[in-house]
Amino acid sequence: MVGDLHTHSRKSDGSMYAADIVAYAKRVHLDYLALTDHDTMAGVPLAEEAGKELGVCIIPGVEISTKDYQRGLPVHMLCYFPKDTETLQKELDKTLLSRAETKKQMIEKIRKIYPVTWEYIERFSRESESIYESHIMQALADHGYTNTVIGSLKDDLISKGGSCYVPNAYPDTREVLRLIHDVGGLAVVAHPGQFHSIPLCAELAEKKQIVGIEYAHPRNTEEVRASIQSICTKYGLIMTGGSDFHGQFAKSPHPLGSFVTQEPAIQKLIGLSKKPT
User: Which end of the chain is more exposed for a tag (fewer CB within 10 A), N or C?
Assistant: First the structure.
C-alpha cells in the first residue's frame, strides 16, 4: 500500500480539480493521497468527499511557503493533519493575499509588453485561492506567445530574475513551525533538494521541530536523498514521498504516483496525528 503525499489542485496552481486527482489516484492504484495546495486547504473537503466514494484514503495537508531568514533561503513546509484548520488558514490567508498583490504587480508589467487583459487572466485564477504564475502564463499561451505554460517564457518574465518579476515576502520558517505545532499539525520539510535545505533539516531534526523530511521527490538528487536518509535515521524521522503533482503545470513530467510514500511511513504519520497535542 502506497500514497502520494504531495499534490496540487486548481485551488492553488495545479491544472486538475481535486476530485479528478482522487479519481486519477484510484486509477494508478494509490491507497493514500494528500492534497497539499499552496497555503490553502480549500480543496481538502472536495478531495475527502471523492475519496469516500472511490475508496482512497485522504490525508489532509497544505504546503506552506516560508523563508529561512537566517540563511536567506526559501523553505516549503508540508503540514499534515492540522486539528485547528481555522486558525491555520487565517494565518495562511495573509500569504495568499500578499501573493495576489505581487502577481498583480507582475501582470501590470506584463501588460506593457503583451496585449493581455486582467479579465482574461482571471478566467484561469478565479477557481484558485490566489493568483499564480501558471494563471498568467495560461493567458499568454492562449494568446499564442508560448505553447508551454511552464517554460522559457515564464523564466524570462516572472521567474526569479525575470524582467517582470516582483518578489514576495513570506513568513519566517521557525514562526510557521510554531504555528503548525500550535494547530496540532505535523511538520515535514518539502523537497529540500530544491532550496538547499539540508542544513536546516538537520537543525530542525535535532531540535525535534519536524516529524519528517520529504525523501522521494523529483527535485531531490541521489546525494540529497542520502543526506535525508542519514538525518531521518539519526533522529527517528519519517521519510515521506510525493510527486509534487501539478498536472500540466510542471517544469518536467512527473505524473501522480511517480514518487510515493510507503505504507509503514504513512501509518507512522497517521499514528502521530492521533496523539494529543
Answer: C
Q: What is the mean pLDDT of residues 161-172?
A: 96
pLDDT tens per residue across span 37-76: 999 999 999 999 999 999 999 999 999 999 999 999 999 9
> Do β-strands 2-7 and 32-35 pair in parallel, antiparallel, or remain unpaired?
parallel
Beta bridge partners of 245: 7
277: Cα within 13 Å, side-chain hemisphere: 14
How many Cβ atoms sit within 10 Å of the Cβ of residue 155? 14
Residues contacting residue 23 through CB under 8 Å, at least 6 positions apart? 50, 54
CB 185 within 8 A of CB 78: no
- In 196-268, the DSSP E strands lie at 212-216, 238-241, 261-262
Using DSSP bridges, classify how beta strands 57-68 and 32-35 pair: parallel, antiparallel or unpaired: parallel
Q: Rounded to an integer, what distance in angstroms lies between the CA atom of residue 37 and that of residue 5?
A: 11
N-to-C CA span, the chain: 28
- C-alpha cell read off for 92: 495562511
Per-residue model confidence (pLDDT) at position 277: 67
3-state secondary structure of 233: helix
Q: How many CB atoms lie within 10 A of CB 36?
A: 31
Burial of 223 (0-12, 13-18, 19+ CB in 10 A): exposed
pLDDT per position as a tens digit, 170-200: 999 999 999 999 999 999 999 999 999 999 9
How would you label 87-122 residue by residue, b for 16+ Cβ within 10 Å and e otherwise? Answer: ebbebbeebbebbbebbeebbeebeeeeebeeeebe
